[in-house]
Amino acid sequence: MKNKIIIGMLLAGGIAVGLYACKKSFLSRDPIGQLGDADVATKKGVEELLIGAYAVLDGNYNGFNWQASCTNWVYGSIAGGDAHKGSNAGDQADINPIERYEALSTNDFFNVKWKAVYDGVARTNNVLKALAKADVSDADRGRIRAETRFLRGFYHLEAKKMWNNIPYVDETIDYVANNYKVSNTEDAWPKIEADLKAAYDSLPATMAQVGRANKWAAAAFLAKAYMFEKKYAEAKPLLESIIASGTNPKGVKYALAARYQDNYNADTKNGPESIFAVQASVNDGGAGNNSNPDQILNFPYSDKGAPGGCCGFFQPTQELVNSFRTAGGLPLLDGTYNANPVKSDMGVAADAAFTPDAGPLDPRLDWTVGRRGIPYLDWGAHPGISWIRDQSNGGPYSPKKNVYYKSQEKVLTDGSSWTNGLTAINYILIRYADVILWAAECEVEIGSLEKAREYVNLIRERAANTNGWVKNAAGTAPAANYVINEYATPWTDKNAARKAVHFERKLEFGMEGHRFFDLVRWGEASSTLNAYIAYETTIMSLLKGVKFTEPKNTYYPIPQRQIDLSATNGVSALEQNPDY
Asked: 164: alpha, beta or left, given left = phi > 0 and alpha = psi -120 to 50?
C-alpha cells in the first residue's frame, strides 16, 4: 500500500530537462523515471499516481522529515505541553523556539511542513488531471476520484490546523496557465468540507486494501473538520452513524481495542480501533522508506540495552505525568494534580536507590510515558538517567507509544539505517476513541450531558481493563498503584462536563500530537498553556520567561520562503498570520 517509489510529481506544465545530447532524437525521448501521458492514461497508471498521493501521508517525501511528521510530535505535542524537545539544547535547535512560542517565519521546520502537505496536494491534483483523460470504467473512475478528494481534503486540513490562513489548491491550478500563485485570504474550510463530503458520499465501505480510505474514514475526517469549526450539529449525526455502523475497509465493525496498548504495537496494528492510519512496513526491500521514519529521533538516548539506540528526543513533561493522578479513581479536574506531583527521579543518580510513586494513578500513564522503575515494554525496567541525554533540558521521562518491543527488533524494525528506530508501527490518524470523545463533546455542547458521560465512560471502562495494565517484572501484579473508575454520578453541570470530556482527551491521546490543536479549537490554549509554563518552570529553566500570546501563537507563521515565492512584481499572494 505504501509504495515510496517516486512515480513523478507531474507538476503542471511538466519539467525542465537538461538537453545535453547532440541528436535531435533526444528531444522525443520520455524523461527517465517520469511517467508520460500515455503511462497514466490507463487504470494502472492512475492507480500508481494515487499510491504516490497516499505515500506522503507521513510527511516523509524527501528523507526522514520529522519536521513534516504526520504525528505532529513537534507542533501538536511539544507545543501543546505533552512533551519537551528533549535531547540536548543544541540538537535540532529549530524546535527550541517552537517549544517556547518564539518561532519566526524563517524557521525551516515550517517550510518543510508546508512543502510536505502541498506536495500531497499536488499529487492529488495530478491524479485528478490524469483521471480526466484515462481509460477507466465508471466504477473505478468514481472510486479513484473519491479517494483522491479524500486525500486532498486531508492535506488541506493538515495545513489549515497549522496555519489557518492557507491557499486551497485544486486541479484547475496550473503552471502553464500562470494561476499557481494562489492567495490565502479566502477561508479554506468550505472547500475542505466539499472534498471530504464528496469522498463520504462516493466511497464504498469496503476496499481492496486495509490502508485505503473508505466511506467511514471520510465520514470521520469530515466530522473532524466540523469539530474544528465548532459545527457540532453537523458533526453529531456523522459521529453517531460511525458509532452505529462504521467498519474498516475489510468490513470489520469499529470498536475500542480490548487493550489500550494494542493501538501502538506493530503486531496488533489495523485493529478494530483504527479508522485511518499511515501504514508502515519494514524489511520489504524499501531500505526503511516504508517504515514509520518520522519518530526516528524519539527513543531513549543510550546504547546500553535501550531500544532504537538514539536520540533522546520527545520527553514527556512532568505536567503531563501529573495529569494521570487520580482520586477515587477519577482525574483531578480542578488542576490540583500539580500540587501532588508524581514522584520522579529528576537528579537521582543511576546507581542510587529509587522507588516509583506509590499513589493512585491512571493506568494509561505507563503506556504513554517511560519512567524509572516501571517496565518499559519488554526491555526491562526503565533505568532512569542512564537512558536520558540531558535531564536539565528534557526532564527524566522517555516516550513510549512509538517504541517497539525488544522481541520485535530486526523483525518489525529495519536495521538497514543508522538506527533500529525505523519501525513497522502504524500511526493512527483517527481512531475510534476520537469518534467517541468527539461525540461526547457534541453531546455536551448541543445534546445530553448524560449521553456525554456514557461516551466518556466507554473510554474509561477500556482503560480499567486489568488485562491491559502494565505488570511488574514477574507479571504477577500491576506495576504501579493503578486506580481508575467510571463517572458514577450524573452530569448536571455543562461546564464541569465539558472539562471532563476535554481532560479525557488529554489522558487518552497523550503524546499523540493532538494536544495543541485541541486547545486551540476549544479556545483554551492561552489559559492552559500559560498555566503549564508556570508549573513546568518550577522544575527546570527551559521555559523561563516564556508566554503564550494570542492571537499570535494560536497559529504558526506562514513560512517566509513561501511568501517570497508567491510574489509577483514584489506583491505576495500569501499574507502573513497576525503579529509575525
From this structure: left
Distance from the Cα of residue 421 to its chain's centroid: 18
Find the length of the chain: 580
Q: What is the rounded radius of gyration, in angstroms, for the C-alpha atoms of the chain?
A: 24
Separation CA 27–CA 348 (nearest Å): 69
For 220, the 3-state DSSP assignment is helix
**Alpha carbons 61 and 65: distance in angstroms, whole number:** 7
With b for 16 or more beta-carbon neighbours within 10 A and e for fewer, the 359-382 pattern comes to ebbbbbbbbbbbbbbbbbbebebb
Q: Which helix (H) or strand (E) holds 60?
A: none
Residue 490's identity, in one-letter code, is P
- CA dihedral over 116, 122, 127, 128, signed as positive or negative: positive
DSSP H or E stretch at residue 528: helix 525-536
**Cell 528534557 identifies what position?**
394
Q: What pTM was computed for the model?
A: 0.92
DSSP strand pairing (326-327 vs 330-331): antiparallel
Grid-cell match 511539544, residue found: 78
Q: Which of 213, 67, 75 is nearest to 147 (CA)?
A: 213
State how far the alpha carbon of 318 is from the alpha carbons of 69, 98, 333, in Å: 24, 19, 17
Long-range contacts: 13-22, Cβ < 8 Å, 24+? 13/174, 13/175, 13/176
Asked whether 373 and 566 are in contact (CB, 8 A), the reply is no
Q: Residues 185, 575: contact at Cβ < 8 Å?
A: yes
E strand residue ranges, 348-421:
369-370, 398-399, 413-414
Supply 244's cell numbers.
452505529
* Count of other CB atoms within 10 angstroms of residue 477: 10
Residue 305 and residue 521 in contact, taking contact as beta carbons nearer than 8 Å: no
Query: What is the distance, to the nearest Å, from the Cα of residue 9 to the centroid of all Cα atoms in its chain?
Result: 24
Closest CA to 4 of 349, 251, 293, 267: 293
Q: CA 333, CA 491: separation in Å to the nearest integer? A: 14
Residues pairing with 466 in the sheet: none
Burial profile 139-176: b = 16 or more Cβ within 10 angstroms, e = fewer: eebebbbbbbbbbbbbbbbbbbbbbbbbbbbbbebeee
Return the closest-CA partner of residue 343 out of 305, 313, 384, 315. Answer: 384
C-alpha cell at 93: 535547535
- What is the mean pLDDT for each group of 10 consecutive residues in the chain (580 residues)? 34 31 35 60 93 92 80 98 96 97 97 96 97 95 98 98 98 91 97 98 96 98 98 98 98 97 97 97 85 90 86 97 98 96 96 97 98 97 96 96 95 84 94 98 98 98 97 96 98 98 98 98 98 96 95 98 95 96
Residue 510: φ, ψ to 5°: -55, 135
Report the C-alpha gap between 381 and 384 in whole angstroms: 9
Contact 276, 267 (CB under 8 A): no
Pairwise CA distance, residues 346 & 317, whole Å: 12
Per DSSP, what are the bridge partners of residue 277? 428
Q: What distance in Å separates the CA atoms of residue 262 and residue 399, rounded to the nearest whole number?
A: 16
